[in-house]
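Blackboard transcription, Thursday session:
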Amino acid sequence: MRAKTTLALGIAAALTATGAIAQDYPSRDINAVVVWSAGGGTDTANRLILAEMQENLPVRINVTNRTGGVGGSVGMSYVFEQPADGYTLAGISESVVTAGVQGGWDQRMDVWYPFIIGGSPDLVSVSSDAPWQSLAELVEAAKATPGEIRAGASAAGSIHHLNLLALEKGTGATFNYIPYDGSAPAQNAAVAGEVQVIVTSLAEQQQLLQAGRLRPLAMLVPSGVELNGEAIPSAFDSFPELSEHLPIKQAIGFAVLDAAPDDVKATLVEAFDAAMASDKVQTWLGENYYEASGASGDAAKEEFARLESLFAWTLHDLGAASVDPATLDIPKPN
Amino acid sequence: MSIADQLLAFVAAIGQLLSQPTLVAVLLGSSLLGIVFGALPGLTATLGVGLLTTLTYGFDLDLALVSLIALYVGAIYGGSYSAILLNIPGTAASAASAMDGYPMARAGEGGRALGLTTTASFIGTLLGMLALVLTAPLIVELALQFTSYEFFLLALFGIIISGSLTSPDLVVKGWIAGFLGLALACIGRDKLMYYPRYTFDLHALDSGIEVVPVLIGAFAIPQIIGTLRSKAPLAAVQAVGRIIPDFRTIARNLRHIVRSALIGVGIGAVPGVGEDIAGWVSYGAAKNGSPHPERFGQGEPAGLISSETANNACIGGALIPLVTLGIPGSPPAVMLLGALMLHGLTPGPMLSIQQPTFLVELAAIMVLASAAMWLNGIVLARQVVKLLRVPATLFLPIVALLAVLGSYALGLNITNLYLMVAVGIAAYVLTEMDYPIAPLVIGVILGPMADENLRRALMVSQGDPLDFFTRPVSLVLIAAILLTVLAQVPAWRRWRHGLLARFRRKS
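(Written on the board underneath:)
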């Protein structure tokens, strides 16, 4: 008797479960797996936006961190192995595009349907006691003594290194690139005078800029910004050729598997758009010197494809890629 | 703000915080949780702050900060429980506390040892807080003198000094263990140019060796195997007795406390170097400066007091660069930085302009956190210790379970579990051969710092090693390293002895 009841209950449960999939998404809690560690930029931004999205959804979104591998490959592989039902999201940033060429996994970014919250734009600054007052002066000095002026940025192949490389290509200057494990130690070194030039994001640098420890020269995006009433010009103003190589901007956000059903994507896009428009998110983005993106769907896929091609081939050129991007069919950047 | 204004704001902040019953409850609860986290081997302050960050996301900033800092202070202190009573440091910060704490406990002075660490940690935290408030701008300038050259030498010094101090046998065995740790730290993608090293094409090794599983494996596994082998319940907790603050011993060791607090604050202020190093360096300084260094390791209260004051003073020190520059001074402070940013607060030079009262509030919170820690320590320590008194047959599976959980929890990465077991077995073999384990762990922690900074220093000087000898701080560190090594060379010792004897005859 009991066995029969259990069986009947089981069948009923199975029926309800299949029914639920056909019905409205989401019907149970969503898990978001951030591929970077807790407390970092990607983690913080994701926890914020997902908490806001939760307000507009009937379920909870639980955030965990699954780190390791290269380019967040452990976390991405985990999400990739889950069913494409929209109940597992991956918290990602632009840096995950290197996972393929570094041998972390054998997939490309086109398996994702990304949502981009935004990112903080990069800028080039110098130590407060450095002699250069403008980017033009710095470039002139760097051209006079190629490879002598020390420029700090996070590790080879990181977004800030790519910005530095683009700056070199667009202006013809050559620096002695000194790599650091992250932006904070690089900036610290610029303040201490170990490097004279520094490329990190505005969010990472703003405290030191406002305290007068670093002097901003130029934003590495098409438009300048105003920081505490002081204008930081765009590098594009004095070196228009930079537009061929820049901007290379952070893309912090999350993704659902591209194979997920369309109604799942639509629900997520709706919740994402509402969360992006909320005061809380907008205030947070402003306070943290982020440029909001809000891109999802095709626009976001395109951005990730562009970043993938750029990062993959740069790493390949640096000799730091263990897999040839050509074998993954990653097109060369134009 | 004048000093009088600051003092007034400080008193007001304490009063304001204490007027909220929820806040007081959270304060005491988080402090106790921190002590439990610290006391249980494998659960670290970093892990605790990290886990609590997610839990306190919904809290107000005040409440979240109270909770996180109370846990941080409690965990750094709590590590001494298992160090003293089990000879297993609950966190790496308390590794030096086991040196004299455990012999004291074996001699039946467990209660006194716990009382001493409680008061020493309390005073240490307060002195650290005082340093944070008074000397923040000054110490930041000093820490900023550190470039790649100094960071490399500092890391090397940390490894060598921990090797010298922990060897039960020949000192060189400590150094060997330290360099084994350094070698382990080389595994994975290098942090500068991203080249794979010693990964043997295994992608699991690409992200390198993580500290938490190494820490857990190296300290927990040898203990588990060793106890199982020896049949006798080795993990039996030493008798505690009455926990007495023992203010008289504290007063007698005042100079140790002041020196240790200064060391703790100084080391905390250096980015990336945390409580573990502070404990060791302070312990070493106490031993070297003592008229009877042979008593150290045999249950000398001064040794215990020195390491426990320094590791708690280090908290205030670690917050100095965090608050003033946005650079965390220790691993738990990294987590704290994340938590602050989660609450929309970006620490850095501007914080004192945007929120002039923040530093004073932080000081008030630290005072409350250390008071809660002291209260919990004196009143509840005996209850917390009961956790450690679970019989070995029950205790070992719990340690094993926590070791497994702890190594998996931080990144949910299964590789860390395998790493923990492998490191644990290797550590067991090493302990059987009388190699100390702490330097190995320190090597893994400081390895990336040594590796990266040496290579970067040579990049900056474009390959010229002479630059190491033209910088004042760098020269001091080189001298310290040379002296530490030479102190173990018999010929040098004879020469120095002879020199001293001649000097004495002359005067």
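Lecturer's comment: The longest helix of chain A spans residues 297-318.
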